[in-house]
Amino acid sequence: MGTQTISIDFPNDILLALNESENDLKKRIKLALAIQLYKLEKLTIGKASQLSGLTRLEFEKELSINKISISNLNKEDVLSDIEKLK
């Protein structure tokens, strides 16, 4: 799998203000982007976990911490599936 590099410019003092390393900020940005794209249903949970750099289980834990469902099924979907299985 190849990678694409995207550069984002920040004010010089942002890392100091956040009190974190450039690498930590990159990880946090990737995770936040992956979560947001998953919430918007732009990425599947597998692709979002790949973007975040986490395993699927680790990404699901992050979703849980952020109170985001790992399933997009609604009540009607479940009831429909139940009817199909009868």
TrEMBL record:
InterPro entries associated with the record: UPF0175 (IPR005368), UPF0175_domain (IPR052264)
A family per Pfam: UPF0175
Domain of life: Bacteria
Region forming the signal peptide: none
Similarity remark: Belongs to the UPF0175 family.
Protein name as it appears in the record: UPF0175 family protein
Native organism: Brumimicrobium glaciale
